[in-house]
Design brief:
Layout: E1 2-8, E2 13-19, H1 27-33, E3 39-45, H2 48-62, E4 66-72, H3 81-93, E5 100-106, H4 108-120, E6 127-131, H5 134-140, E7 145-150, E8 153-160, E9 165-168, H6 178-195, H7 197-205, H8 207-211, H9 215-235, H10 250-259, H11 267-284, H12 290-301, H13 313-322, H14 324-327, E10 332-338, E11 341-346, H15 350-361
Parallel strand pairs: 2-9, 3-4, 3-5, 5-6, 6-9
Antiparallel strand pairs: 1-2, 7-8, 10-11
The structure holds nicotinamide-adenine-dinucleotide (NAD) and zinc ion.
Length: 367
């Protein structure tokens, strides 16, 4: 087992991120070590419950906890205030008070919802994250962003609320559909590009192993990606500056997702295309050299993802404008200066972003 410390400097709070194969069995022991409340509501989804619900409950019981399991329907459509409300109902009906806690067992959807419930129920009760998708293990489980969608847009309602601990067991990824694994790999590539050149070399050297879900390789990549995220989040918990580098590839990625009504791409797939656009823009700006641009394009072109469909320019423009970060007035764009280092710069035009869309639309998607 390896442990990372995420320190939220502004409030001098910190919590550990434990990473290791087979670690789920130690959940109770670790939660107990951190003084987690004995009564725990495990919030999961209907895909994950039959896979890991029992093992999670057993591990908690072994640490002296009394777990109760509740499942929500899987998928992004569950990320709503209606689901949150039904979870409050359940907590109240079961008599959960301030001396109780929540454990999120699932992907980013479960983590975001359960974290928001933990942040708001009785003005906040402690929670633990046990992420079960690669995306959640390398991205959403670290950093304390919780929340749900509103009919008007994604993640419009939420809170920053840090868990007591995060437990990451890469063996749980064995059951993940390959498409979900590959979408999560895109966020691993992002972490490498913005903060860990060695991770990028590891991805290049063992790409086939990563794509096929080799657990040893994934463990190393998860540790490194979490380290990048922890470092960034520790410097800027509330995304007033530096944390924005985590949005690398996301301006174009979000616009691609939205312009295709969230039906065509998984988030990571859209971000993979978005990163291809971002490295092209970085190269055009003279920030990134030919050699590194070539290496990154080669790697990202091998990441399985659907091709970009025909998107009318006006529709894409509209979605770019709707992006929260653009509406705020000053659009900071995240460029890459070299593998392992991102830079935030002000002032990118819509035309430049549209030219990047044109560029990536002309690239071949892998079969
Ligand atoms: N809080 C943050 O900082 C942050 C960051 C990035 C993304 N997110 C959010 O994360 C969400 C996406 O998360 P996701 O990609 O994990 O999606 P998800 O939670 O919907 O999981 C994807 C699918 O995999 C299934 N699944 C989960 N674990 C499994 C396993 N081990 N084996 C088999 N199937 C499994 C789920 O039931 C679901 O059907 C989005 O809502 C996004 O907004 C949050
Ligand atoms: Zn992302």
């Amino acid at each position: 087992m390896r442990a990372l410390e995420v320190r939220i400097s502004a409030e001098t709070r910190s919590y550990p991120v434990y990473i290791g194969r087979g670690l789920l069995g130690s959940l109770g022991k670790l939660a107990s070590r951190h003084g987690f409340p004995k009564r725990v509501m495990v919030i999961t989804d209907e895909h994950v419950a039959p896979l890991y619900g029992e093992a999670t409950a057993e591990a908690l019981k072994a640490g002296g906890f009394s777990p109760e399991l509740v499942s929500i329907p899987p998928g992004e459509s569950s990320k709503s205030l209606a689901t949150v409300s039904s979870l409050y109902d359940r907590l109240i009906a079961r008599g959960f008070d301030r001396g109780c806690g929540i454990c999120a067992l699932g992907g980013g959807v479960v983590g975001d919802i359960a974290g928001f419930v933990a942040a708001t129920y009785l003005r906040g009760i402690p929670w633990i994250q046990v992420p079960t998708t690669l995306l959640a293990q390398v991205d959403s489980s670290v950093g304390g962003k919780t929340g749900v969608n509103h009919p008007a847009g994604k993640n419009l309602i939420g809170a920053f609320y840090q868990p007591r601990l995060v437990l990451i067991d890469p063996d749980l990824l064995g059951s993940l559909p390959p498409r979900e694994l590959h979408a999560g790999l895109a966020e691993v590539v992002k972490a490498a590009l913005i903060g860990d050149a060695q991770l990028f070399s590891l991805l290049e050297a063992h790409w086939e192993g990563f794509v096929s879900g080799d657990p040893e390789l994934l463990e190393e990549a998860i540790l490194r990606a979490c380290r990048v995220k922890a470092e960034v989040v520790s410097r800027d918990e509330r995304e007033v500056g530096h944390r924005r580098i985590l949005n690398f590839g996301h301006t174009l990625g979000h616009a691609l997702e939205a312009a295709t009504e969230y039906r065509h791409f998984l988030h990571g797939e859209a971000v993979a295309w978005g990163m291809l656009g971002a490295i092209w823009l970085s190269w055009k700006r003279g920030l990134l050299n030919d050699g590194e641009r070539g290496r990154i394009e080669a790697l990202l072109s091998r990441l399985p993802k659907p091709p970009i469909p025909e998107i009318p320019t006006e529709r894409f423009r509209e979605h770019l404008r709707r992006d929260k970060k653009i509406v705020a007035g000053t659009l900071h764009y995240v460029y890459l200066s070299r593998i392992g280092e991102a830079v935030l710069e002000e002032g990118i035009s819509e035309e430049e972003l549209l030219s990047a869309l044109e560029r990536i639309s002309s690239l071949e998607a892998p079969s």
